[in-house]
């Protein structure tokens, strides 16, 4: 696809626009409405509508945040809030449904209604979304004969059952368009199935057609869509998901062009750099088509992150950040674009387009309706040079717009759950009830088998992920992770003793696979354990009898819950003036699961450009930040989870204090909006504009080289700080003739 910097130009009273977006679910009308579509757009009560949608996944925030998030999206120019429906959150066990707290879908929809906005409901019920197991409940994988997302009767039966539950609940609440009140106006079935359909052969084609027919049989009176479904039937609209969709066309001339996902950033994985998408590039893509996905990413609370290795933060570099605060300049940049697009609505939806060539690398798309209202999109594809055009007014077109850890301990695993000859699969055994599975066995060694003379044996372990602690006799344990390579081998020296030797492994997962063909069959856990260096050669323990324990004792006992009165013991001498050191584990505040923490650094200090050039096509690694830094340092603890006093933070630390490396000081930094009565005004004495771009501004004429380190030393981890403007604070005065106030 050609990249373009585009400039919307208005001619006449009202004009510009782009295309439509994405249809599915709710309406704030007091009366029932009729929702249809033609080749140009969605039609509501006979009028074509251009709507801008913002994605907010309700379980990734807490209910106390929902009104503020919706209000910020509306202020940013959105008409519509859209969200997936997360099956494994709503049906944690077969036939047992949950719609409380973060999963209170109806409450979220009512908040959207009260804000006077529409809502899109993406039922799926497979959602991907970097969510654990793609949103599908793990129990479904263990129903005999089930294969996800194909012509499998158990899968189709449970998928239809859950879809019907959601539809009937919304009908009961009168949330569909023909019913009035919120009026549902569009729904989605399946998600991006066209990208994987071929892997399932004829069964995949049959399933896609069945899913569409099943959705239509719900008789909700609003259109249905299927994302990335290139063979969608005539009465279901196929849509586009991508960074750019202006070249997309639906599979029928009678269907409008809908863009269901325009990613404003990208998700993060532990140990990777932080992706960043410049607002200029998003604006280019939105102006070419006009719709965004993930307006607010939120947080993968508890164990909901998928991947594997997707971070607890699902900030996504979105216009509203993880904490519910607007991200500038991205939010403001897109808000202004949305305003311009809305001015173009009539010309865009009712006018016929005309293409104009303005030069070898310049062009214009002009829409003019019957009343003479005109909207023009002017593009410059020259990567180096500005161009000047006259179209009613004078305009300048800028170029091309548009790790290894150690620990030693003696384990008390508690009572074993079962034993088995050989290895079992980690995920099939835990069934997503925990991240952890113990593998334990014993080996009897005669003294004559030991080489002696200070010679160590070597433990060789193979695993298909995601990580493993190896607890072995008289030597530190070892844990290894390989991001992006879940199958790995570790070799570590051990010292066996004559007689019985117990060897234990704690296998760990960090989020289950969430997408791809047959993703539910991706396994984890040990595949081979051998010991080299004995007099009789290599001993293979893989086929021995192994004892298994699912989860950890404290996890099973829920010692993090305020309702449980477990005794806590402290060391005889409490540490003083020592930093809080975290390596990897999980966090709870007052019994509510914050999620996994892991301040793992990205593997390389390279790959982060000092200046991000938004020109040209965007891809997730183009504008990385945070090279050589922890992927996630800060963890979102919602204000509504705090009590006035007596708050309890529980941290389960996997690695412990014997891990090699430098600790970092911990702290809690409250983030929030100004409250009523706050001081929000201050006189401006001087106004100057910085040179450069956000994240890489140029130094001024009076720059102190050590100013950043001085500010960091004085202000990091503090709620407020002050710095004396003196030569003693910053060193030699670089510009004595200039005032420092």
Automatic annotation (TrEMBL):
Alphabetical list of Pfam families matching this protein: BetaGal_gal-bd (PF21467), Glyco_hydro_35 (PF01301), SUEL_Lectin (PF02140)
SUEL-type lectin domain location: 677-741
- Provide the residue span(s) of the region labelled Disordered: 654-680
Reaction catalysed by this enzyme: Hydrolysis of terminal non-reducing beta-D-galactose residues in beta-D-galactosides
Q: Where in the cell is it found?
A: Secreted, Extracellular space, Apoplast
Q: What cellular component terms from Gene Ontology apply here?
A: apoplast
- Report the InterPro entries cross-referenced here: BetaGal_gal-bd, Galactose-bd-like_sf, GH, Gly_Hdrlase_35_cat, Glycoside_Hdrlase_35, Lectin_gal-bd_dom, Lectin_gal-bd_sf
Q: Give residue spans, biased composition: Low complexity.
A: 661-672
Cite the EC number: 3.2.1.23
Q: Which PROSITE patterns match?
A: SUEL_LECTIN (PS50228)
Enumerate the UniProt keywords alphabetically: Apoplast, Glycosidase, Hydrolase, Secreted, Signal
Q: Which domain of life is it from?
A: Eukaryota
Name one process (GO BP) from the record. Answer: carbohydrate metabolic process
Query: Which GO MF terms does the UniProt record name?
Result: beta-galactosidase activity; carbohydrate binding
Q: Which family does it belong to?
A: Belongs to the glycosyl hydrolase 35 family.
Q: State the protein's name.
A: beta-galactosidase
């Amino acid at each position: 696809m050609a990249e373009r910097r585009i400039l919307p130009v208005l001619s006449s009273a009202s004009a510009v626009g782009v295309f439509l977006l994405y249809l599915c679910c709710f309406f704030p009308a007091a009366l029932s409405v009729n929702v249809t579509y033609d080749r140009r757009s969605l039609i509501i009560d006979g009028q074509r509508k251009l709507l801008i949608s913002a994605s907010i996944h309700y379980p990734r925030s807490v209910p106390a945040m929902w009104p503020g998030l919706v209000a910020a999206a509306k202020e940013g120019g959105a008409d519509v809030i859209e969200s997936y429906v997360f099956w494994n959150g709503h049906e944690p066990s077969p036939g047992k449904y949950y719609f409380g707290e973060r999963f209170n879908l109806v409450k979220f929809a009512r908040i959207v209604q009260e804000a006077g906005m529409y809502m899109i409901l993406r039922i799926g019920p497979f959602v991907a979304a970097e969510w654990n197991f793609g949103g599908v409940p793990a129990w479904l994988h263990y129903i005999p004969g089930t294969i996800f997302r194909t012509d499998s009767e158990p899968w189709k039966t449970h998928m239809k059952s859950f879809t019907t539950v959601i539809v009937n609940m919304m009908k009961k609440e009168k949330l569909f368009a023909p019913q009035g009140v919120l009026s549902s106006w569009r729904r989605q079935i399946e998600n991006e199935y066209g990208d994987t359909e071929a892997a399932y052969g004829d069964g995949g084609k049959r399933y896609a057609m069945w899913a569409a027919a099943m959705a239509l049989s719900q008789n909700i009176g609003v259109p249905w869509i299927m994302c990335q479904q290139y063979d969608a039937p005539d009465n279901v609209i196929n849509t586009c998901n991508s960074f750019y969709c202006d070249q997309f066309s639906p599979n029928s001339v009678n269907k409008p062009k809908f863009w269901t996902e325009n990613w404003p950033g990208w998700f993060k994985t532990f140990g990777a750099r932080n992706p960043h998408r410049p607002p200029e590039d998003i604006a280019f893509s939105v102006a070419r088509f006009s719709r965004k996905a993930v307006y607010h990413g939120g947080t993968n609370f508890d164990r909901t992150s998928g991947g594997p290795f997707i971070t607890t933060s699902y900030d996504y570099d979105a216009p509203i950040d993880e904490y519910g605060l607007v991200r500038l300049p991205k939010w403001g940049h897109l808000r202004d674009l949305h305003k311009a697009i809305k001015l173009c609505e009539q010309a865009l939806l009712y006018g016929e387009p005309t293409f104009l060539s303005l030069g070898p690398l310049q062009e214009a798309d002009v829409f003019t309706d019957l009343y003479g209202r005109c909207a023009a999109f002017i593009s410059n594809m020259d990567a180096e040079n500005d161009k000047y055009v006259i179209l009613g007014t004078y305009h300048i077109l800028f170029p091309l717009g548009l790790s290894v850890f150690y620990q030693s301990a003696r384990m008390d695993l508690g009572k074993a759950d079962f034993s088995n000859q050989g290895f079992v699969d980690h995920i099939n055994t835990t069934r997503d009830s925990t991240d952890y599975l113990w593998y334990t066995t014993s080996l009897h060694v005669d003294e004559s088998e030991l080489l002696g003379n200070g010679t160590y044996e070597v433990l060789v372990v193979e695993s298909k992920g995601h990580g493993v602690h190896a607890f072995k006799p008289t030597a530190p344990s070892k844990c290894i992770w390989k991001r992006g390579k879940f199958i790995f081998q570790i070799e570590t020296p051990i010292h066996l003793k004559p007689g019985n030797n117990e060897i234990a492994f704690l296998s760990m997962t960090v989020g289950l696979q969430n997408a791809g063909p047959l993703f539910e069959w991706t396994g984890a856990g040990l595949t081979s354990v051998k010991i080299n260096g004995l007099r009789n050669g290599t001993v293979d323990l893989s086929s021995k009898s192994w004892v298994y324990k699912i989860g950890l004792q404290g996890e099973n006992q829920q010692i993090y819950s305020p309702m449980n009165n477990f005794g806590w013991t402290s060391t005889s001498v409490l540490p003083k003036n020592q930093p809080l050191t975290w390596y990897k584990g999980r966090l709870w505040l007052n019994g509510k699961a914050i999620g996994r923490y892991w301040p793992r650094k990205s593997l390389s200090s390279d790959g982060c450009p000092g200046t991000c050039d938004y020109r040209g096509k965007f891809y997730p690694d183009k504008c990385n930040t945070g090279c050589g830094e922890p992927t996630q340092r800060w963890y979102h603890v919602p204000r509504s989870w705090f009590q006035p006093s007596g708050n309890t933070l529980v941290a389960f630390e996997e690695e412990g204090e014997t891990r090699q490396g430098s600790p970092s000081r911990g702290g809690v930094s409250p983030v929030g909006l100004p409250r009523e009565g706050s001081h929000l005004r201050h006189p401006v004495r001087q106004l100057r504009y910085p040179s450069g771009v956000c994240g890489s501004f140029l130094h001024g004429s009076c720059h102190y080289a050590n100013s950043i380190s001085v500010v960091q030393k004085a202000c990091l981890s503090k709620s407020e700080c002050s710095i004396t403007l003196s030569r003693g604070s910053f060193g030699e005065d670089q510009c004595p003739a200039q005032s420092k106030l």
